[in-house]
């Protein structure tokens, strides 16, 4: 490996908060608290080595803080285009014939809610957690009695957003995430 490649790799790992390099001290791995877990790569890497259920609960906590509020915003401010994307995702969920189709549609549904909220600071969170969220959705679908067991809860979120009822959308999303938490903890 050339020095240039090594330097670039160390620069990348440093920018992600994983290592620090100092003259006369050397290169060291930084404590986990210093890692930039809001980096797509670091989050993906961490999700692969973290204890699966503990990581799933941390991701769930983050979702519970963000998604109900995002659903309320989506109800209040979705556009025709963002609602169409949400509607298509909900339709794909209803039409899903197996776990893989369900998970793809479920992921698109949650990403569409973030897009429909019209807050450009929330939209990138979907991209950030997309890979780890997909794994969590797959796990939840497999833990349910049937893969599409939460279609009713998703429909409640969808209908509240369609009705532009922010309070109902927040409550419906909180209810949906409560079901998800129950499957993770169960």
Cα(first) to Cα(last) distance is 47 Å
Please identify the top-level CATH class of the largest domain.
Mainly Alpha
Mean pLDDT: 90
Major sheet: arrangement of strands: 1-2
H/E order of the elements?
HEEHHHHHHH
Structural class by SSE content: mainly alpha
CATH architecture of the largest domain: Up-down Bundle
Q: What is the number of domains?
A: 2
How many beta-strand elements? 2
* Percent of residues in helices: over 70%
What does the largest sheet look like?
Answer: 2 strands, antiparallel
| Count of alpha/pi helices | 8
Chain-wise SSE layout:
Elements: H1 3-15, E1 19-22, E2 26-29, H2 40-49, H3 52-77, H4 80-95, H5 99-116, H6 123-143, H7 151-162, H8 166-185
Antiparallel strand pairs: 1-2
Helix pairs in contact: 2-6, 3-5, 3-7, 3-8, 4-5, 4-7, 5-6, 7-8
Provide a descriptive summary of the structure in words.
With 186 residues, the chain is mainly α. The protein has two domains: 3-34, no CATH class; 40-185, Four Helix Bundle (Hemerythrin (Met), subunit A) (Up-down Bundle), CATH 1.20.120. Helix content is 73%, strand content 4%. The protein has helices at 3-15, 40-49, 52-77, 80-95, 99-116, 123-143, 151-162, 166-185; strands at residues 19-22, 26-29. It has a two-stranded antiparallel ribbon with strand order 1-2. The mean pLDDT is 90.
């Amino acid at each position: 490996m050339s020095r240039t490649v090594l330097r670039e790799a160390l620069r990348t790992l440093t920018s992600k908060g994983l290592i620090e390099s100092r003259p006369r001290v050397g290169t060291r791995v930084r404590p986990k608290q210093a890692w930039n877990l809001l980096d797509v790569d670091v989050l993906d890497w961490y999700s692969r080595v973290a204890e699966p259920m503990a990581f799933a609960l941390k991701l769930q906590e983050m979702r519970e803080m963000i998604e109900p509020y995002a659903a309320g915003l989506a109800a209040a401010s979705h556009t025709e285009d963002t609602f169409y994307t949400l509607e298509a995702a909900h339709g794909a969920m209803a039409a899903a014939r197996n776990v893989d189709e369900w998970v793809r549609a479920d992921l698109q549904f949650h990403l569409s809610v973030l897009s429909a909220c019209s807050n450009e600071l929330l939209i990138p969170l979907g991209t950030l957690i997309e890979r780890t969220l997909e794994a969590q959705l797959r796990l939840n679908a497999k833990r349910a009695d049937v893969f599409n067991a939460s279609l009713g809860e998703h429909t409640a979120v969808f209908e509240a957003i369609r009705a532009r009822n922010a309070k109902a959308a927040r409550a419906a999303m909180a209810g949906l995430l409560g079901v998800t938490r129950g499957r993770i903890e169960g």
